Amino acid sequence: MFKPTPNPPDTVRKSSTMFMVAPDIDIESLLAHSCESLASASVMASDFAARLQGPDRHTVMALQQIVMLAELAVNRVLDTVDPA
After folding, report:
1. N or C: which end of the chain has fewer CB within 10 A?
2. pLDDT tens across 4-28, in order?
3. What is the distance between the alpha carbons of residues 27 and 50, in angstroms, rounded to a whole number?
C-alpha cells in the first residue's frame, strides 16, 4: 500500500517537471493552443449536456458557459498580442 512520506515543515516544495510547457514557446502560440483547448472543452461539455436531463444538465451547461467565457477572454488577449 502506498504511504506518502510526510514533508518536513522546512522543506521547500519544487514544481513537478513531469508535465511542463517548453520554456521557449512564444506567448501567441500558448494563447492559441489555450483557445483551441477551451473551444474543444466547450463543445465536449455541450455535447455531454445534451444527453442529460434536469439539474445535471444545468450543471454541465454552467460548466460549458464558464469554459466559453474563458475562451472569450483568451481570444481577447490573443487579439492584443503583437507577434514578434
Report:
1. N
2. 666 666 667 777 778 888 889 999 9
3. 35
> Which residue type does 60 have?
V
pLDDT at residue 8, rounded to an integer: 63
Among candidates 46, 51, 48, which has minimal Cα distance to 64? 46
Which grid coordinates belong to 75? 481570444
Closest CA to 35 of 70, 61, 62, 83: 70
Choose among 43, 31, 40: nearest CA to 73: 31
Dist CA 8 CA 2 (whole Å): 19
CB 81 within 8 A of CB 27: yes
DSSP codes, 12-57: PP----SS---TT--HHHHHHHHHHHHHHHHHHHHHHHTT--HHHH
